[in-house]
Amino acid sequence: MKDGVYIDGKWRAGGGAAFSKACPATGEASWQGRSADAEDVAAAVVSAHRAFAGWSRTPLSERIDILERYAEELGKRAGDIAEAISRDMGKALWDSQAEAATMKAKIAVSVAALKERAGERDEAAAFGQARLTHRPHGVMAVFGPFNFPGHLPNGHIVPALLAGNTCIFKPSELAPSVAEIMASAFEAAGLPPGCLNVVHGGRETGAALIEAPINGLLFTGSAATGVFFHKHFAGRPEVILALEMGGNNPLIIWDPSDVDAAADIAAQSAFLTTGQRCSCARRLILPSGAFGDAVIEAIVDRAKGIRIGAWNTPDIFMGPLVSEQAAWQAVDFQDMIVSRGGKAILPLTASQSGTGFVSPSIVDVTQAQDIPDEELFGPLIQVVRVSGFDAAIARANATKYGLSGGLVCDDDTLWARAYTEMKAGILNRNRPTAGASGAMPFGGPGLSGNFRPGAYYAADYCAWPQASQLAPKAVRMTAPGFPS
Ligand code: NAD
């Protein structure tokens, strides 16, 4: 197990505090080591600046070759990656295996995106030629969340490196193990030392990194942290800041003919990865009356039938939450909304001390007052009953966030309305809110980000455009009133 810092292609113990992560299914340590202190972070930044000089001048074709070899190396390590993620943060092995596959697939998508969105273009002009190219920013700090500790940082690192930047990766302290495997895959792929450095640790390490002379911060995590970074870099437009944050995502179900299919979509939207996806549905909006009652009953059936277990138990749908602390936070959140008038149709319970296991939960908040517009990162969905479709859309949009949303309906006219009126960067019809294509941008308005969506559009924030007018030789300039 490698801890501390990875600088210039070498691991060494960090000078900061020791920390560990426990597997939330067993309570046993899945990672332990020392964090990087401010000196380690400074050394990583120096290394990344030094490496930038060479890497940014390396021809794109060579950078692509190295990243394609990295994809192969990730493929060879897919089993290790999946196990490391599951042990650290608890998700079912099939879920982590899908994450490992997405990490590998990211390279081809990023190459295509760079060529399409941040490539080169020449156009003939009367004076000669107009040319567009893109330049890398420099040293990018990459902060990852715990729920996709490999895929989401990888989704910043790969396009950043392809564009010619170098990176300093601060993995989530709640799921640190995958970083070592990523570093070893880069090494085997021939990435020059210093192009990717890793600094392990929590907030203190992150604080040192944002104080360091970096050229960009690529962040995926909670809105609270993203807003903090936004304030920190206020007045510094020269630092590129890409913020991918959370959501309070609505799912409307409006009279589809297949109640069971609608309930499947709702339950998967709410409970996938134990509700620990940024795109999970947090609010379910249903019509008052018998149809809405039937949908709730069908969702309750599914929630009760969900198999929960440790990550390596066959055929589980849900693992635990990331930590025991997260489990108690989920219980507290439920208690708070119940105290404000919510009715727990299926209560969330935290089952075993020392672990993160919780049960899926459905709380009707139709009559409740003052429910905060906050993301609870767990398997709890709040139900709101409304009398008409106008009210459904209004409730869906009653949030400061705008990450994902969905409508389950057969009616094309209703969908046409939702498609134009619902405020969500990921807006799905008859599909779970938590489904997104890697070949599309990912992000949303409001508190969900700063309009620098990731995934396919990550190419946009990894390079700046440079437009040139090119003439083969200097010729005399003419203009009305200009002396000839
Ligand atoms: P988090 O914001 O707590 O932590 C993310 C990273 O920021 C971690 O590396 C953490 O150490 C660091 N950090 C936190 N506070 C810091 C501070 N004050 N100074 C410096 N560094 C700091 O997020 P999390 O709990 O790991 O992840 C879950 C959150 O991420 C959810 O809100 C979820 O919605 C969001 N998320 C968003 C997306 C997206 O693409 N929009 C995807 C996945 C997760």
How would you characterize this protein structure?
It is a single chain. By secondary structure, the protein is an alpha/beta fold. The protein has 2 domains: 262 residues, 3-Layer(aba) Sandwich (Aldehyde Dehydrogenase, Chain A, domain 1), CATH 3.40.605; 181 residues, 3-Layer(aba) Sandwich (Aldehyde Dehydrogenase, Chain A, domain 2). Helix content is 38%, strand content 21%. The chain is built from 14 helices and 21 strands. Strands 2-1-9-8-7-10-11 form a 7-stranded mixed beta sheet, sandwiched between helices. Helix 9 links the parallel strand 12 and strand 13. Helix 1 crosses helix 7 and helix 2 packs antiparallel against helix 4. The longest helix is centred in the N-terminal third of the chain and has 25 residues. It is globular. The mean pLDDT is 97. The site of nicotinamide-adenine-dinucleotide (NAD) has 28 residues, from helix 7 and helix 8.
Summarize this, please?
The protein is of the alpha/beta class. It has helices spanning 38-55, 60-76, 78-89, 93-117, 151-162, 178-189, 203-211, 223-232, 259-271, 290-305, 324-339, 389-396, 412-421, 458-461; strands at 5-7, 10-12, 18-22, 29-34, 121-125, 128-136, 139-143, 166-170, 196-199, 216-220, 240-244, 249-253, 281-287, 343-346, 361-364, 380-386, 404-408, 426-429, 441-442, 454-455, 463-470.
